[in-house]
Design a protein that fits this description.
This is Amidohydrolase. Residues 203-293 form the Peptidase M20 dimerisation domain. Residues 1-20 form the signal peptide. InterPro entries: Amidohydrolase, Aminobenzoyl-glu_utiliz_pB, Bact_exopeptidase_dim_dom, Peptidase_M20, Peptidase_M20/M20A_hydrolases, Peptidase_M20_dimer. Strand 1 (70-73) and strand 2 form a beta hairpin. This protein has helices spanning 4-14, 23-30, 33-46, 54-65, 126-147, 166-172, 225-239, 278-299, 318-331, 338-349, 378-382, 404-410, 413-435, 437-451; strands at residues 70-73, 82-88, 92-98, 102-103, 120-121, 151-158, 181-188, 195-197, 200-209, 248-255, 266-275, 302-311, 369-371, 387-393. The longest helix is centred in the last third of the chain and has 23 residues, at 413-435. It is built from 14 helices and 14 strands. The protein is of the alpha/beta class and 472 residues long. The chain folds into two domains: 4-198 and 313-451, Aminopeptidase; 203-310, 2-Layer Sandwich (Alpha-Beta Plaits), CATH 3.30.70. The radius of gyration is 23 Å and the shape is globular. It has a six-stranded mixed sheet, with helices on both faces.
Amino acid sequence: MRTAAFFASAAIAFAMPVTAQTSEPLDEVAAQEERTGRVAQQLWDWAELGYLETRSSALLQDELESEGFSVEAGIADIPTAFVAEWGEGGPVIAILAEYDALPGISQTSSPTREHSAHGAGHACGHNLFAAGSLTAAIAIRRWLEKTGTPGRIRLYGTPAEEGGSGKVYMTRAGMFDDVDIALHWHADDENSAAARTSLANRSAKFRFRGVSAHAAGAPERGRSALDGVEAMNMMVNMMREHTSMDTRIHYVITEGGAAPNVIPDFAEVFYYVRHSDADEVRALWTRLEATARGAAMGTGTEVEWEIIHGNNPLLVNETLARVMDQKLRSLGGIEYTPEEREWAETISQSFGDNAIPLEEAGKVQPYAKSLGYGSTDVGDVSWATPTVGVRTATWVPGTSAHSWQAVAASGHSIGHKGAQHAAKALTLMAAELFSNPELREAARAEFDAARGEDYEYVSLLGDRDPPLDYRK
């Protein structure tokens, strides 16, 4: 039987070196540089939360329609999700675009800590993700038309990656069933096309209900919902000792009462559970639910919960990843202007002993297969069709995602430059895939072997509808 290693090594032979043949797609990307920066900045200014990205989604749709794409909005029962397509015949190559921001973290584009009044921010760089993917889709559309290459390029507008699992609902609805290959990318503090997997995860809001009473005058009449939350948290924290190494469990109390002298009759805690194996997430979840029931029983309260999101782990396709790595290496890393370097040096100072030399932005990291401890709804897409991604240095080296430094760089020319760099890599990869049927076939063979003959897609969300109000 041919193994994944065989398919990965075969991909090297299929990969087309970057020559004059591939300069034309890059010319098309260069022509979109102003658009990349403009769209990225507008999305950063709006910083709309998951499933509420009305203006962000509309802007992307307008840009695509102006380039001749046909656009279908509101797919998979999600108002801010869409698919845009151009071309006919040939293979279908998809590019994913995210555009939701994170709540509770805001920052201006200053290189020093400077809160914005907005209350939300693109701390994961999804404004850049959307802009870079948009540019790549338009560049490939123009290249297809100029060269007469058969094929269809699609851009999928995918809302609410941050805890909303927008792509899962799209996958569940069959939106990727006829896609040959899916491409994605992400903001980062380094350039890499390494074959990095992700953790499966599931989240839920556990809601405890008790009885209100005067905390001093009649404590015997009350039953604290907050006690239920705290009892659950205590038991879960003890449970951590008895879980496997890949397990990640984290929570935040979203509501715990308003005044100390009022016994709260409602409290809520929001939990995430992650593991590299989706079945282990399910097993951990059974234990998590047991702690909730036990906490309610012990505190005289009632509890119910709502699953909010769930993602399968990313299924790596090394046949594609090695070719993407080659494309990224042909481009090299990111070069700062003197002004950008000065700005980046100020950001870097905020990292203290964790600072990394700025020169790392100019490098491409070694290729390797590794486990990433984050989670993404791209994971579900990767089980529906062969999928490959790339990361570029949109942030100052040393920056962590979900930080104020990430927000700042995502609204700065350094971020825009990284998005443009990602667009180049995606465009080169897409052009290769349209031109190279052997590569597509090898990627599909590895994909089919990895899933197995009896594979059946099962989401970690069950049959629930998209939680369109989870950020309200």
